[in-house]
Structure formats: structure tokens, C-alpha cells
Design goal:
CATH topology of the largest domain in chain A: Jelly Rolls
CATH architecture of the largest domain in chain A: Sandwich
Low-confidence stretches of chain A: none
Largest sheet of chain A: 4 strands, antiparallel
Largest interface: A-B, 51 and 51 residues
Number of strands of chain A: 11
Strand order of the largest sheet of chain A: 1-8-3-6
CATH class of the largest domain in chain A: Mainly Beta
Oligomer: homodimer
Structural class of chain A: alpha+beta
Order of helices and strands of chain A: HEEEEEEEEHHHEHHEEH
Distance between the termini of chain A: 54 Å
Number of helices of chain A: 7
DNA sequence: CATGGATTGTAACATATGTTACAAACAGGC
DNA sequence: GCCTGTTTGTAACATATGTTACAATCCATG
């Protein structure tokens, strides 16, 4: 197997190594080495190929108006760069991609990758799964941020937990994690929860929450 | 042509009507009629088929904890329901889907739709384009909301306009539209712009903005 | 049971944004 | 030019959230 790491990639999951190897005989690909600090893609550059991190690691960085850089995310093997964007109309890299350490990328042109999808239904199915799951995730996050008060976010969050209908739920993370998920600070979240308790909407005992006023709670998850 | 509206759908764009007709001979599909007010899908229900609105219109609605409903969006022909989600892992409808008026939906199972993609590269290419473009859009919106101050959003917005590098840009929408795009109120946006002018970051003349302090501006688009 | 680290609760103050209202500047049609 | 509706600028006040700091509680471990 040429690239054993591929079998752990969601794009090639469920495909035996021999089959992967055979598939790669049908297309053109190349492996490119990026020394530490080198640039694999610039923000705004058109996305024309699928690039899978084989070794090392890359980071996505934005450059602001003054030329300073902000790290957005790290990309480890066997993840791919902007996989969910590649076939979008005029898709461009949203960030600069830089090698954190000496790294190798497997590069397959969009056309060749599409050829793989046509040839093997498993490749097609895997890719559809990856990109749809990404869209689902993004959509969920976006819906979440559309509640702009902390109480609204918390009320909506409660409603998504198992047992919400029964009026009693168990929160599955710490306030710290929850506050990061909401994009707010931890004390602000604690205060909001306290106020909701004062207002008689819920009663809280650490991780355990009883929903006392469903109508009132739902009123919060509007704005 | 059985469903002339399909040729206007992004999923079947660029495919001559005869070819579409021929494709549909290879798969199982059905057209289902939904009288006004009837429910086509419930939030949380698994997404197993592609559903394209042929006539009438549908709306996506959320039900809150108290059973009240909030309209999220309208879906007109030839749009599809949750097209970008269908192949996601355990994909479920995020909203209830209700018929605004007497409507018809074309229903194709996920498997059959995938069969169409395998059979015709144009169908594949169209779908990939649709779902990737959706992911791009969602990702862009999300990045935008991650700037939590209005000044940060505005600074970032300025940096995306053509001519930002030259230090002079022309805003292409009204403050009202911009404030909705940012998810803030119009007076708050105007105030933020005014303050940025006072601080010497920019100088504004109606739609025309000169970027005077790139370093300062970039400092805003961090948090 | 004692201890220390993690988690949660709470407070005072600063700041950003929303809300509401109105005035000023612009743009297009008569 | 003169209106009228739209867009932009500005103000006073209310509210939500961030910031910082510290206390109280929980929980695992010795």
C-alpha cells in the first residue's frame, strides 16, 4: 500500500487497501513535499485540486489588513484541505495554508477525483457523506448563533437534549465547554442560568435541569 | 417533458430536456400532492429522499418548546428540501416542512438519486456544485459571525471589497442591508462607523470609504 | 477524612449594542 | 426648482454581555 494513511481518511473509508491502490492506478496524482513554513495555498487562490495531508501537519491562517496572521485551524493527516468546497462555483481557499512542520500532501485534481467517484461508488458515497455532514454541521452552528441572547441559546440547547419533552434533562458538558460552544464567557452563562432560575423558567441542580415553564422558555428562543 | 420545471433546477441545469426524461426512466420516483397546510416532513425525521418542489410552495418551520411555530424559510419550485444534507451521516430534517398552498413534490430516494449521479456525469457535477457552494456559503456566514464586534465585522467586510488593497473602497449596499447582513441594527452600525471615523481609522463619504489606518483596522477583526 | 484541583456561583464595574426617536442629506419625479 | 420617500447621521436611555475577581461547592486521590 502506497499511502496507508488513506485508509483512515473518511474519503476512502470502507475501501480495502488493494482497491485503493488499484483506483490510484487510473488517475494522475502527485505527492508534494512542503518544508516547514512553506505555503501550500494562498487565501483567495482558486481550489482546483483535492489535497490530502499524508504526513506532518498544516495550518490554516488568515492575513488581516495590516499583514498580521491569525491561526484558524490545524489540519492533520489524513484530513484534506477544503474538501467540502472543491466543487463549489469559483471556490477559493478561505485561508492561507502553511506547513507546521515538514509535510507531504497528496494532490489529486478535481477532475481526477471526480473520475474516481464515477469509477467507484464507495468513493462517491464517502465524498457525499463528508460534504453533506459538513453542511449539516455548519448549518447547525449557524442556526445556533442566530439566537442572539445567551438565554435563547441555552433554552434552545435544552430543547435539543434527550428528555426535553419529559421536562428533565441532564447537561452533558461543563459550563466552560458550553460557554465556548455558545461563543460567550463562562460567568455570563452562569449568570444567565441563574436569572432563568430566578424567573422560574427552570430549576437547576448542577448538571440536572428541570424545565418548569416551557412557554416561557420557548419565548426566549425566538429573537 | 414531464417536469419542465426541472430544467430550471440547479440539480439538472445544463441537461437537455430529453436527457432528463430519459434519466427518469431508469429510476423509481413519485410525485406526491400535499394539500395546503399538510406536513411533508417533520423536524428530526430522517432524510432519506430528495424532494423537489414542483408546484406550489413549502415552508420550513421550527416548533419551540411550547409548541409555537416560527417560520424559517420558504421553498419555491424548483428548489429541493435539504438537498445539501441528504447524504450526511444520520441526516435529519432540521425543521418541519409544511405546504403553504396545494403543492407537488417530486420524490426520489437517495439511492436512486445516487444512481442518477453514477449514470450521468452532469447530474453528479451539478449536485457536487450545489452542495459545495452551500458549504462555502455557510462557512462564509459562520466566519463572519465569528467577529463579534460591529467594528470587527465592518473592518472585515471592508477588507473583502475590491480595492481594499488600494485603500479606497465603495460599499455596494445600503446601511440597512449591511446591518441585516451583519445581524445588527442600523443605528448601531452607523454609530460604529462614526466612531471608527473619529478614531482616524477610516474616512467616510456616504458610500465611499478611505482606509486610513490598516493596522488599526486589522486590530479590530481579531476577537 | 483531608487536600487540592476542577467546577460552579456570584458580584461590581466597564462596554457594546439595542431601542426609539428625530434631524439632515440625498435622489428621483413632477 | 420643489416635493416626497429613502438613506444616513445622531442622540438619550435601557439592557445584555464582557471582565475580573473571588467564594463556594464538588470530586478524585491519597
Amino acid at each position: 500500500m502506497k499511502f496507508p494513511v488513506l485508509s483512515r481518511s473518511p474519503l476512502f473509508t470502507g475501501i480495502p487497501d488493494d482497491d485503493i491502490e488499484r483506483l490510484f492506478e487510473c488517475i494522475i496524482y502527485r505527492v508534494r513535499f512542503y518544508p516547514e513554513g512553506s505555503v501550500a495555498a494562498l487565501a483567495g487562490e482558486e481550489i482546483v485540486s483535492l489535497q490530502i495531508v499524508l504526513s506532518g501537519s498544516m495550518r490554516g491562517e488568515m492575513t488581516d489588513l495590516a499583514g498580521r496572521t491569525i491561526k484558524i485551524e490545524d489540519i492533520f493527516p489524513p484530513q484534506a484541505l477544503a474538501a467540502a468546497f472543491i466543487f463549489g462555483a469559483g471556490a477559493r481557499y478561505p485561508v492561507n495554508v502553511i506547513a507546521n512542520s515538514d509535510s507531504e500532501l497528496l494532490i489529486i485534481s478535481g477532475n481526477d477525483y471526480m473520475a474516481l467517484m464515477k469509477r467507484d461508488p464507495r468513493v462517491l458515497s464517502n465524498y457525499l457523506n463528508v460534504v453533506c455532514t459538513k453542511a449539516l454541521f455548519l448549518s447547525g452552528r449557524l442556526r445556533f448563533l442566530s439566537f442572539h441572547t445567551i438565554k435563547g441559546k441555552f433554552a434552545h440547547y435544552l430543547s435539543t437534549l434527550p428528555g426535553a419533552a419529559s421536562g428533565k434533562v441532564l447537561i452533558d458538558r461543563t459550563q466552560q465547554e458550553l460557554s465556548e460552544f455558545f461563543g460567550v464567557t463562562r460567568p455570563s452563562l452562569a449568570r444567565a442560568i441563574g436569572e432563568m432560575e430566578d424567573e422560574g423558567l427552570i430549576s437547576v441542580n448542577r448538571r440536572e435541569v428541570r424545565l418548569k415553564d416551557l412557554k416561557g422558555l420557548s419565548g426566549l428562543s425566538q429573537a
